[in-house]
Amino acid sequence: MRHARATWALLPALTFTFLAPTARAGAPSPPLTPDPTPPVPAIGRTWPVGTRPAVLRGWQPPATVYGRGHRGVDLAAPPGARVRAVAAGKVSFAGRVAGRPVVSVELPGTGDPPLRTTYEPVHPSVTKGDEVEAGETIGTVEATGSHCSATCVHWGLLRGETYLDPLTLLPPWLLHRGPSRLLPVLDVPLP
Fold it and tell me: What is the mean pLDDT of the segment spanning 32-40?
């Protein structure tokens, strides 16, 4: 019994020793779980096609690097429709990948590595190295080469080799579907 009491008496001291933070006084505490990628800023200023195109298929992240999923968003668009850069950037690729025409735009100031948008099947009107502004035409929708049942633009977003949801680039007001509504201002005296 005497041995058990001695063990219980040490328990609070042991608990404090193992649970107490090891950082020096005044030093910031390290994060519990480091964030592997910076957040996606809502810097988009326009949809790639149309004003509010129908999303034929949304982003579905794969469970593993090589797993099944949908690494972008499919937007309804007729053949020949103008495709615009969602945000300002520099064209990092304009050519064919696996037989499909692709345009990719790197977005500066969006972290390390920077974000990169991709658009396919898009016949490019830009070349690698071109600087583009948000809303600037980068090409036109090709009639063939799409994986959709109807003509569409597959819009992707990557940070390095990690695929992200491209809709996160757009601010909420641009995603909103429906008319704008003005609300009354209450309890404000008239001038």
Answer: 60
- Which one-letter DSSP state was computed for residue 170? S
- The three-class DSSP label of residue 59 is coil
48: DSSP letter: S
CA 134/CA 53 separation, integer angstroms: 17
- Considering just the CA atoms, what is the radius of gyration of the chain in Å? 25
Rounded CA gap, 126 and 27, in Å? 50
Q: In 3-state terms, what secondary structure has residue 27? A: coil
Q: Kindly indicate the confidence band of residue 51, based on its pLDDT and cuts at 50, 70 and 90.
A: confident
Report d(CA 179, CA 55) in Å as an integer. Answer: 18
pLDDT at 13 over 50: no
CA distance 48 to 56: 14
Query: Domain ranges in the chain?
Result: 70-175
Q: Give, for 13, the enclosing helix (H) or strand (E).
A: helix 2-19
Type of residue found at 188 = V
pLDDT at 22 over 80: no
Say what the pLDDT of residue 1 is. Answer: 52
Q: Does domain 70-175 have CATH number 2.70.70.10?
A: yes
Q: How far apart are CA 143 and CA 189, in angstroms?
A: 58
**Residue 11: band (very low, low, confident or very high) from pLDDT cuts 50, 70, 90:** very low
Q: Look up tokens 């968003």; give the residue.
A: 73
The pair of structure tokens assigned to 34 is 């480091």
